[in-house]
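User: I want to check something. If I give you two sequences, will you return the structure for each one separately, not as a complex?

Assistant: Yes, each is folded on its own. Here is the first sequence with its structure:
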Amino acid sequence: MSKEKKSFFQVMGSYPKSFWVASIMELFERWAWYGLFAVLALYLTGSTDEGALGFTHTEKGQIMGFVTAILYLLPLFTGVVADKIGYKLSLIIAYVMLITGYYFMGEVTSFSTVFLVFLYVAVGAAIFKPVASAIITKSTDESNSTLGFGIFYMMVNIGGFIGPAFSSTLRTQYGWKIVFIQAAIVIFINLLIVIFFFKEPDRVKNEESLGEALSSSLKNILEALKDSKLTVLLVIMVGFWTMFNQLFYTLPTFIEDWIDTAALHDSIASVSPWLASFMSGGGTSVNPEMLINIDAGSIVLLQLLVSYYVLKMRHVSAMITGFIIAAIGIGITFYTGNGLYTILGIVIFAIGEMMTNPTFSSFIALISPKGKEALYMGTYFVPIFVGNFFTTFISGNLYQAWSDKLSLLQGEMSKRTIDMPEISKEFTKNDYFALASEKLNMTQNEMTQFIWDTYQPNKIWWVIVGIGVVTILALYIYDNVVIKPKEKQELSS
C-alpha cells in the first residue's frame, strides 16, 4: 500500500520546533562566519593605515589555510563529544567561544596572536557544525528529509550572503573593527535562541566513555578509508575543494590588487545607481567581498532550478559537468583584469558549485555498502580538510611569488635601482604605492597596468584551472573504471 503523498504545505508543517530553531541558528552562524571570512584575506593583507594588518600573502595563507583545515577535521570528533555532553551544552560552549573569539580577533594584531585567536574561533565553529546537522537529521524523517535538508542548505547560503553584504557596508563606513563586533553580536543572538528556545532532543545513551567514543570514531573513519573506491573518490575531491577555496582565499586579494573596481562601480551605476551603491558599501568602488558574494546570491536564486536539472543526470555525470563549469568560471575570474568578466566568472563558477557540492554527498552514499552509509558519510569532511591544507600554499606562497602587486612592484623598483623605504607602521603599503607611482612618473592605474603587462600576475590561473582539469580527468577515469562497471553489474543481477 503506497504512502499518501503530502502537499508542500503539509510537509512544511510537519517539521518540529527544533528543526526551525536549528535552521535559524545555522543562518546566524553562517552570517557571522562568512561576514568575517569573506573579508578576512583583505583584512590580513590590507594596508595598516586603513586599519588592516599588512601581513604577507604567505602569512595570510597560513592563517586561513591551516586553521580552516583544522576546523573541517575537528567535526569528526566534536560530534562525538556533543553526543556525550548534550546538544544544548555543546551549543552554549560553541557560542561562548565564538562570541569571545570573534571579538578578540579584532583586537589582536601580531601573526601569532591572530593565528591563535582564529584557531580558537575555528574550534567553536567545529563544535557547532555537527550539532546543527544532527538536529536537522533528528527533526526529519523519510517523508520530509529531502526538503528539510534543502531548507537547511538554503539557510546556509542566505546567511552566507547576508554576512558579507553587511560587512562590506560596515567596514566601508565604520572601519574594520565593526566587522568583528558584528560577528560577535550575531552569535550572541544565537546564544539567546539556544538558551530560551532550544529543547534538548532525545539522544541514545551510550555507555562508552568519552575516550572510548573518540577512539571508536577514529576507527570508523579508518575502516571506511580501507575501501579503495571511497579513498580514491576522496582524493579526487581534494582537487575540487582546493579549486573552490580560491574563491575566498585568493580571489578577494586578486580583485583588490588588479581589478579597477572604481570603473566597475561606474559601469554598474550607469544601469542601476542603487546596485552600485549597495556593492560599494556606499563608497565609490565595488568592494571585493561583494563580488565574491555573487556566488552565494546565485546559489540562493538558482539552487532549486539547478538541483531539478541535476535530478535527470547520473551522479557522476553531474559532478563532472559541474567540475567543468566551475573550472571555466574560476579561470575567467583570474584571467582578465576586467570586473565585468569577474562577475561573469563567479556566476558560472556558482552554477558548477551547485551541480557538484550537493551531489557529492549523494555520490558517497551511492558507493557505500548497504548498512555502512553513515560510516562512509563520516568521511565527507576529509577532502575539505586536505583541500584547505593545499590551499595554504596556492593562496599564500604561490600568490606571493606570482601575483602579489606589492611584491612585483618591489621587484621592479629594485631592478631599476630606485631606492624605496621598507614597509612599516610609519610607511604603509598604500604609502609605498603612492611613492612608487610618483617615482615611476605614472598614475596608480598606469602603474598597475604596467606591472600587469610586465609580470602577468594572472598566470596563477594556469595552476588553479590545472587542478580542476586534473580533477575532471581523474573523475572521468574513476567513473569508467569503478562506477560504470558497478552499475552494469547491478543491472544484470
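And separately, the second sequence with its own structure:
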Amino acid sequence: MKNIEKYRNAFMNVLDLEEDDVHEDLALGVTREWDSIGHMTLISEMEDVFDVSIDSEWITEFDSYTSGIEILKRLGVNFD
C-alpha cells in the first residue's frame, strides 16, 4: 500500500469518514469529526502508521489534510 493510501486510511479510520469525505479541504475544527480529541487520536495514528514521532510544535501545525502531508514529508515519509 502506498503512503498516500495509508494516510487517507488513517483519516477514514480515526475520524470515521467515508472515502469521498477525505479530501484536501479537510481541516481541524472545520470537519465535525476532527475536533481536539480526534486530532490527538489522528496524530497518534500517524505516528504508528508511519513510525515517526511528531513533536508538540508540529502537532499544532498539523491542522489540515495538506499540512499533515508536509509535516510527514519533513519527517522523511515519501509521498511520491
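Because they were folded independently, the notes below concern the second chain alone. The CA atoms of residues 53 and 80 lie 21 Å apart. Residues 36-50 form the longest helix (15 residues).
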